[in-house]
Amino acid sequence: MKTTIWDVRDYTNNLADYPKLSEIVDIYRQGGLISLPTETVYGLGADATNEQAVQGIYQAKGRPSDNPLIVHIYDAEQMDDFVAHVSEATQKLMDAFWPGPITFILPLKRGYLCESVSGGLDSIAVRMPSHPVARALLKEVALPIAAPSANLSGRPSPTTFEHVYHDLNGRINGIIHSTQSEAGLESTVLDCTTFPFRIARPGTITRSMLDDILPNAIDNMHFDNDEKPIAPGMKYKHYAPETPLKIFHTLSYQINVTQRDWSRIAFILPSSMTSLVPENAHIIELSESEGDIEAANHNLYAALHQLDQIAQIDCAYIYGYPDNAEAEALHNRMVKAANHQYVKEVW
Ligand code: TXA
Ligand code: MG
Question: Does the model's pTM come out above 0.90?
Fold first, then answer.
């Protein structure tokens, strides 16, 4: 399949003026698959009411079909067609965080969306993205758009056009070339079908941000990466780079530089720590300081993709960052990327 590329970087805030907008819209309406930018990661979008289009998403990604998709909307009124009920508490959170990087799991009203979007569940995941290109597109298409992250299943999520192109060129109808995703990690997924609400996937909208709007409504379970997942997608091995990755917390000051061939090793860490790394090793910087979680979130997936571009390396070490509430999503993704592998100290 030929994949068309639409470069909209000059139209970020005025997509309506982009000359080929109607071409994109037509392809969506005809059931095509197009990758679109969002503020979290790039998505692979298709008409959520078109069974064949949605099957195409699962095929293009190589994704198991028991893993349901998120439906993206422009206007809350669109939910009337496919959501059975929005509680007052849920509404408060929507008012506070939409448009933005949070997905709500809500009771499904059957009949409007195609069956496989929800993977046979009684609930449906809904998100209203804030990215100006995504918003303009959703408004123009005027259809709910199902969109998982635009990566091959099991690969890190894409935060740039190049990441999408690498994984899906030739497998989908088109890719919208926009700027790097701002948040950098996938949306927070909040299950609102039970009370208290449960965080099914941590994201950049943190537990404390939710608590501030709605005290005592969020289940305070610690997010356990091994627990039976609420979001089916969390049970799959995820976000893994091809290079074996380990998490470290300390770099020894007395690294024995002759002990290993450091040119075959990469470090992913804050700039403030690079002076401790042996000269020959590869360095990928995630943030300036170890306290800058926002920057680390933003850069994590690009760093994992970059890692796989380095020829001939044996393994990589990623700094574990402070284990605090703000870093819950960062840790969640990092632990998965490293497949739970830790080292006490790199020497
Ligand atoms: O930031 C994001 O959420 C991105 C952008 C493109 O919007 N999308 C994304 O989609 O990350 P995906 O498919 O990669 O992840 C969706 C997650 C999966 O873990 C899935 O299992 C879960 O949401 N999910 C979807 N529907 C669900 C449901 N009804 N109940 C529980 N979990 C659900
Ligand atoms: Mg994904």
Answer: yes
